[in-house]
Amino acid sequence: MGKKKKRTSSKVWCYYCDREFEDEKILVQHQKAKHFKCHVCHKKLSTAGGMIIHVLQVHKESVTKVPNAKPSRESTDIEIYGMQGIPPDVLAAHYGEEEDDAPSKVAKVDIPSTSLGGVVPGSSGIGYPQPTLSTMQPMGGVGYSYNSAVPVPPAAWAVPPRSHPWYQQYPAVSFPPPPPLGYAQQPLFPVQNMRPPLPSTTSPALQQPSQINPPGLPIFNPAPVSQPLFPVVGSNNMATQSSPFSAPTLSTSILSSSPTEVKGSIDAHSGANTSVTGNYQALSIPGGPLINSHSYASGPNTGGPSIGPPPVIANKATATEPATNEVYLVWDDEAMSMEERRMSLMKYQVHDETSQMSSIDAAIDKRILESRLAGRMAF
Amino acid sequence: MTSVAPPAPGRELSNPPSDGISNLRFSNHSDHLLVSSWDKSVRLYDASANALRGEFLHGGPVLDCCFHDDSSGFSASADHTVRRLLFSSNKEDILGRHDAPVRCVEYSYAAGQLITGSWDKTLKCWDPRGASGQDRTLVGTYPQPERVYSLSLVGNRLVVATAGRHVNVYDLRNMSQPEQRRESSLKYQTRCVRCYPNGTGYALSSVEGRVAMEFFDLSEASQAKKYAFKCHRKSEAGRDIVYPVNAIAFHPVYGTFATGGCDGYVNVWDGNNKKRLYQYSKYPTSIAALSFSRDGRLLAVASSYTYEEGDKPHEPDAIYVRSVNEIEVKPKPKVYPNPPA
């Protein structure tokens, strides 16, 4: 179609780390949590400069680089807030780059096919992104062997507003509707059509919920995060829960090989349950046969060992988490528990200063020390 | 007065604590509910009658509490004390102290001892039959790799979860060293650990919206059964919001369990069949604690902001006691004629 290539003006992005966001409000929250946060007391400031001054005045320490920023964007001289303050050359480069990125990214995408192999009948090169844009396959899980229990949750995908072209610009690539959905995965992060992982610099995570609507292909509704591997029985929300979630298959195949945490393991979709379930009924699921072949963890790589590498900072899309969506941890302080942090608040300081204060101080000092030593997240 | 309709969050207990609720427990002998709070109090309620029966004030926020029997209980406080609470006389005395806030307390009927875990990185065992005073009651102190975050007991086994994702499994009959030293299979900070009522393993939850189901038996066959699942997450605006899973409570009869998270939801799961059985409607704020009554007919839910986002205005802290319907907690076995044992 003759859709014009759109700039990422429809999506905002962070100057410091090049990540993209749906709207500026979320971008600002991200900046405050990742770039403008004091590493000592975790107070979120409103700008990088403000954070630096705070650290200097309150903690007597000099901060010279913006935390969690890419090497060329670490300078503290630039005043950024949301999308404001981005130097014009960087702005232009970002958009220009996004166009070049696409083709190369397409080629680079690599989908571990092992686990998917058996599952996707006939779809060519499961998820192997074709060198040309035009043959994107709606394959889920870039880089993730997401074997979701329900191979085909097409039902789960509502049709997003058509007016949202991928910001990536693939002009209405019309995807050949993949054979039986070819999704072996119901990715937790619906990767729609295997798009070249994301525009520009965002990490491989596909973030975009919107996609071009392949003719005849159901569109994924980004929201549903999947098909709870823990299918809801007893349907408190679901009227007719059936087909895909065939329990027997799930339990038996789940975790055949990797113990503990199977990547992309059972995902109990909690909050948005209702919306998801509603969707399930929408489509009849052609993927019947896929269900059984859905072998979880049969392949070696179901996302890597569950115990092992220290936790990666959740907000970065990493290989351990099929993060097509950005993952935002409500509690991301590995060094302290919620109760410890709460205890350090003034209102809980006991008047008996001797024991209480010293233990609180000790706890705070310990946290500071640990966070410095451990580099903040590696446990 | 029992509102049983599913949409209702349950009956709200009157006279709740004036600050956050750290834990709540049903008694093994009646429908009495013991509630510990950040307002430095421990309160005893009669949940069926919706009445406050007793209140004890400590020197600092109380982080945990448990029953001994229907006439007494214990508490763990941030003022470093471990206290015994006598309900009939409303008196309390200090059983002993740690060197830092005491985070968890559990009473073992099997061993006749009280076990406490603290941020001072130790576990202590106490014999509550003695007179008070640390020298008389302290049975032993067991160093842990890190600050203790959660404890759970079943039979003769004790599971201790600490900061740094360590998990120690002890046999109460021989505390000189852990029976197993493990690491949480979840990659993020541990939030809560609870043993299965059947004693074969434990469930462990983290701050990253995930629960791991583990087994004590280290044989291949048993270890193959372990798994983890994601829960208490919400997807919106292109990103996944992942909430800590603060509480786990097992149903005493069916062995299914409920989890409560900072998202304000309580989910009930069938661990054997790997299914979610039910999700209660959203509570006003984070779920800080859960407890099933001894017959499994009541579920107490502490809807109390847990400061995951710092000090900010929040919904009032409340305790809801809801009647549990069988359909919400009973496992639905697959097609076999006999449900898996």
Shape of chain A: globular
Largest pleated sheet of chain A: 2 strands, antiparallel
- Compute the gyration radius of chain B: what is it? 19 Å
Q: What strand order characterises the main sheet of chain B?
A: 1-30-29-28
How many angstroms does the end-to-end distance of chain B come to? 37 Å
Which pair of protein chains has the largest interface, and what are the residue counts? A-B, 80 and 84 residues
Structural class of chain B: mainly beta
Oligomer: heterodimer
Low-confidence sequence ranges of chain A? 102-229, 232-323
Please outline the major beta sheet of chain B: 4 strands, antiparallel
Q: Which percent range describes the beta-strand content of chain B?
A: over 45%
What is the H-and-E element order of chain A? EEHHHHHEHHEHH
Q: List low-pLDDT spans of chain B.
A: none
Mean pLDDT of chain B: 92
Q: What is the helical fraction of chain B, as a range of percent?
A: under 10%
What is the residue-mean pLDDT of chain A, rounded to a whole number? 58
Global Rg of chain A: 23 Å
Structural class of the helices, strands and pairings of chain A? mainly alpha
Task: Tell me the layout of helices and strands.
The complex is a heterodimer of chains A (379) and B (341).
Chain A: E1 12-13, E2 20-21, H1 24-34, H2 48-59, H3 88-108, H4 114-117, H5 247-253, E3 266-267, H6 273-282, H7 288-293, E4 326-329, H8 338-343, H9 353-373
Antiparallel strand pairs in A: 1-2
Chain B: E1 11-12, E2 21-26, E3 32-37, E4 41-46, E5 51-57, E6 62-69, E7 72-77, E8 81-86, E9 91-97, E10 102-108, E11 113-118, E12 122-126, H1 134-137, E13 138-143, E14 148-154, E15 157-162, E16 166-171, E17 180-183, E18 190-195, E19 201-206, E20 210-215, H2 220-223, E21 227-230, E22 233-236, E23 239-242, E24 245-250, E25 257-261, E26 266-270, E27 275-279, E28 287-292, E29 298-303, E30 318-323, H3 326-329
